Amino acid sequence: MPVAAYEPPYYAVVFTSVKTEEGGRDGVAGGYGETNERMEELVEKIPGYLGMDHAGSPGGLSITVGYFRDADAVEEWRSNAEHLAAQKRGRAEWYERYTLHVAKVERSHGFEREHG
């Protein structure tokens, strides 16, 4: 399920990556899976965290979008010590390349088909 549309403004942090062969394109080799699970546990504890969407392609491109109520929540996540350690390990072992974009959401809406 996609993360619900929230009342703007809020922030979207978009992390787009391609893993190294050592990092395991399946997301489980080299400790990546465990670290990823831990990061999800940590980010959920941040006041102002709204949710996260993930998508991946067969070619290895992965996109994660985290949603945060305000810039303070984004900063708390950015500066978390365990998150910083995971970033360092990611650059050393798991990622071939990545980009990070932080955007302020000014408009948001959603749709869900009714079944029944």
- SSE run: EHEEHHE
The percentage of residues in β strands lies in: 25-35%
Percent in helix: 25-40%
What is the terminal-to-terminal distance?
Answer: 18 Å
Residue-averaged pLDDT, rounded?
92
Q: Regions with pLDDT < 50 over 5+ consecutive residues?
A: none
Order of strands, widest sheet: 2-3-1-4
Compute the CA-based radius of gyration.
15 Å
Q: Biggest β-sheet, characterized?
A: 4 strands, antiparallel
Which CATH C-level class is it? Alpha Beta
CATH architecture name = 2-Layer Sandwich
CATH fold name: Alpha-Beta Plaits
* Overall number of strands: 4
Q: How many helices? A: 3
Domain count, please report it. 1
Q: Which structural class best describes the helix and strand composition?
A: alpha+beta
Structural shape: globular
Describe what you observe in this structure.
GO terms for molecular function: monooxygenase activity. This is Antibiotic biosynthesis monooxygenase. Keywords: Monooxygenase, Oxidoreductase. It comes from Streptomyces liliifuscus. The protein has about 120 residues and is α+β, with helices and mostly antiparallel strands. It has a single domain, classed as Alpha-Beta Plaits, CATH 3.30.70. The protein contains 3 helices and 4 strands. A 4-stranded antiparallel sheet has the order 2-3-1-4. A hairpin with a 4-residue loop joins strand 2 and strand 3. Helix 1 runs antiparallel to helix 3. The longest helix is centred in the last third of the chain and has 14 residues. It is globular, with a radius of gyration of 15 Å. It starts with 9 loop residues before the first strand and ends in an 11-residue tail after the last strand. About 10% of the residues are buried. The mean pLDDT is about 90.
